[in-house]
Amino acid sequence: MYIKNLKIINFSDKYVLQNIDFHDGVNFVVDTESSGKHNKVGKTTFLKLIDIAMGAQERDRLYFDPETNSTEEELERYIIDNQANAELTIVDDINHPKAMHTLRVGLFKRGHYFIDGKQIKQSAYRIELNKILFNTQDKHPTFRQLISSFVRITMSGDTDTFLRNLPRASIATYRSVYNFLFDISDPSVDENRGNLEKQLKIVTEAEKQFKRVQQAHQPAEIKQIISSLVYQRDRLKEQIDDIVSLEQFTKNRKHLTTIRNRYSELTNKIGKLNYQLEQTKRLIAQTVSDSENAMSNQLTLNFFDEIKSLIPQLDKSFSDLVIFNQKLYQNKI
């Protein structure tokens, strides 16, 4: 596709501020016009307008200089007050076009995007441009990554780089872009390769971190340690076999395990019986003590005489009561 025409239109009054036609071959940008409504747009700004029409962000860089942190307030007010738009016409052939598209972008903040008169979101705008200019719907490489090889300017200024024209891009991204532009390989393969390389880098870094923190050995060192331990194990086994039969040792170990289990059971039973014995002794001592203190002779005798006076037919003596009570405690013991 080729650029056929670029217009700067004030949509506040539909005034066409600039109307530039492009021709086949080399086109030079020269600013010689002077008029009452001329906004003194320079050559670099003119090229930035093309980049904005190609989906570039930071439209405020038209009047804001990040290097000096200054704003061209007159230009900013002009764009906002007049609702200035950049309209770019692209064709498949300059002289005999068969396919033509009109791209329009509002130069002010939150300005809308249009393709062939239809308003569209910025993300969808780039997707459509990817279809129109590169005949692809793949997400990788992105449209902005591809168009950077043709529009050699950024919103932050001119760029004279050739092969490395993408800021902060990885080798995988460059490989994906150039493979697509020169039709070297499938972009999806490049994307998968890039993802695998990222995962490999993450795993490799994690391995380094683990070794540094845990002071881990290299695989070869670990194999050597294992080999040494196996050798020591085999040598100890031979020494044990010289002292005692392995089969007999295994049987004895099983028998020892059985004895240990039986010993634990008996120990538990003895413990329970000792506890019961202590409890019984305590109860006997308590009963004996109670039996010794159960009858206070004088108090009990007075109480017995009082009851007997109330029940004349009672034929038992106080001695009988004492003997009966002692028998009760003896039975309890």
TrEMBL record:
InterPro entries noted in UniProt: P-loop_NTPase (IPR027417)
Database matches in SUPFAM superfamilies: P-loop containing nucleoside triphosphate hydrolases
Alphabetical list of Gene3D superfamilies matching this protein: P-loop containing nucleotide triphosphate hydrolases
Name the UniProt record assigns to this protein: DUF2326 domain-containing protein
Annotated source species: Schleiferilactobacillus perolens DSM 12744
Lineage: Bacteria, Bacillati, Bacillota, Bacilli, Lactobacillales
